[in-house]
Amino acid sequence: MKSLAIVILTAAAAQAQTASTLKDAFRGVFRVGAAVNQAQFEERDPAGGRIIAAQFNTISPENVLKWQAIHPRPDVYNFEPADEYVAFGEKHQMFIIGHCLVWHSQTPRWVFEDADGKPLTRDVLLDRMHDHIKTVVGRYRGRIAGWDVVNEAVNEDGTMRQSPWYKIIGDDFLLKAFQFAHEADPQAELYYNDYNLENEAKRKGALALIRKLKSAGAPVTAIGLQDHDKLDTPPLRQEADTIEAFHALGVKVNITELDVDVLPRTARQNTADVSVTAAGGAGSNPYVEGLPDEMQQALAKRYADLFRVFLEHRDAITRVTFWGITDGDSWLNNFPTRGRTNYPLLFDRQGRAKPAFDAVIRTASQ
Ligand code: GLA
Prior knowledge:
Helix 7 runs parallel beside helix 9. The protein is of the alpha/beta class. It has helices at 2-18, 22-25, 38-41, 46-55, 67-70, 80-91, 122-139, 164-169, 173-184, 200-215, 236-247, 293-312, 355-363; strands spanning 31-36, 58-61, 95-102, 146-151, 189-194, 222-225, 228-230, 252-261, 317-322. It has 13 helices and nine strands. Strand 5, helix 10 (200-215) and strand 6 form a beta-alpha-beta unit. The protein has an eight-stranded parallel barrel with strand order 1-2-3-4-5-6-8-9, surrounded by five helices. The chain has a single domain, classed as Alpha-Beta Barrel (TIM Barrel), CATH 3.20.20.80. Bound molecules: alpha-D-galactopyranose.
């Protein structure tokens, strides 16, 4: 028995060692994915497209399925880009993610108002949410395999975010959103997605929320930890504790928007709140000419450490998705300070694999 186990382990290690792509290195462990932009899935960025096809087996849409993009006006749906996104995923046999149905951000103001600009009543907003979810999820039924149903409903202190959804509908807006999504595609996986869930107060609030949703019968498949990380935060112990705490509730845990910001902090808080902006003072953009080797190595180590935690929790994790392909694509060149040169991903601006890429691949065989 023992020698058989050793043979099997050695074979697995050999497969990982020879694997030169992310999807092969982690095959059978978890899917590896990336958020793709319109130029990539419309094949106007052939270099990016090649990396996606070679490296990943799941994709998320960076923007085209957000409410403001797909449903800009009450009677107008803009399906074309989302159709192309889904077709691209099918062409490459990807596990296709939908992101996101109910969020306070990148959602037009009209969603929450009547024709006179007055706030909607609970029932009318619920109807509007129902129509949107039914239309969008229904259109891609059987093709989009998993949906971020609700994005970012919890505050840093663990209380519920006072979004228009919450204020107008009440805290069962999440339960309703999950029910509507399930009704529109009973086979689809359904997720709650948020950032900073590693922080204790926010984690506690989100755990309570998921417990409550589950006991009300909401079909929650998994929690998405966005993991917009820094070199030094969240600490690995906190990352592990968070994965374990959600998994203990009987849901899977996905890493949904992974990147590692290497630039000096300009915002007061660590946040992935897209509405935050910060001015960049002297020294806030130090690597315009390139990332020094020492930072390159620090980034590689950070990624390896994170992937070791993910691997240790392979029973909980079904997917690890990066938020972008190359450093040049990343939102972190403009968040929270516009116009900086950041290096948060595994591929450089020319599409070449960075030391962090090799470090991640190596973790699979350790
Ligand atoms: C949040 C959202 C994503 C994206 C990122 C930044 O995490 O969930 O859709 O907007 O911010 O790009």
